Fold this sequence. Notes:
CATH architecture of the largest domain: Beta Barrel
Number of helices: 5
Number of domains: 2
Strand order of the largest sheet: 1-2-3-7-6-4
Strand content: 35-45%
Number of strands: 16
Helix content: 10-25%
Mean pLDDT: 83
Largest sheet: 6 strands, antiparallel, barrel
Structural class: alpha+beta
CATH superfamily of the largest domain: Trypsin-like serine proteases
Amino acid sequence: MIREYCIRGIATAVAVTSLFLFACKEETKKEATGVKSSEVMSNSFEKIIGENSSPLFRIKAVKGLGTQQRAWGSDIFAFHIGKGYFLSVCHNLIRGDKGDEQLINLYKRNISKPYLLIHQKKDALFGNPHLNSYFADDHKMYERSFKRFLFLVDVELVEIITDYDIAIYKIADNFKDLIPHIPSIKIDTKIYDIGNDNYYGLQSAPWNEMGHMIHKVSIEGYVDHFSKYESIDVVRDGFRYLTKGYLKFGSSGLPYLYYDKDKDEFRANAIQSELFGIQMRIGDSRDNTQYVNAIATPLSNIKEKLRELGF
């Protein structure tokens, strides 16, 4: 009898020890990934970076689509706020670097046109193969180097607001039936406090323009802004956020998001505008700089325009 109890006691001890070691191992995994035992990733966080659910895209200038003279131009981040409208920056349209004609003039003269870029792993737009019927052969292609299908959607430039470095685009009429299927995000025209804990940036994954990444951003201050291009007579001014976070070169046009914990939802609150002039130099080398701070335009600056558009 004593021997039986001993065996049972040893078995129980082994089982308890195994469970303890398993729990420690799982807790170590969670600590390594930065996830506490009481935390579970919200659906909103998963959705905001999903290939078929993120509202973040890029808009690209293209010359001669469907011809042998097709030429790809510059592209910029843009995000869908619903009803087929996209917000971005306008400095890429008016800069005209190195003597090149301003992109906005190329659009006006119908030499180049803006297109919304949608990359998909599968040959089915947002997972729905029936939507592929909207795309002619010159509007859909397989990019072998990225292992992605590229869908091009015609968009139109609605307006630029140079003071605030904002451009507004809209889906062209020939693609208007796609609008309900394109992921969008609600807008938020509040001004948030410096140091708000629920502020984030949404941009592409670190390597290039593919993928999506959500990350913490800090509102470091408020700015009565002024900046001017040397080559053109354009001034950018007005109220801005001074932000701090992980900022990639080419991140202009990305949305800054407020996360509402009670509703478990993100809302677009500002647009990434400028990085130049706000850099951290490493090792006193002009060639070794990291973008840490940036200038962002709050959507409160254009709330009257947004109301005109029905938001």
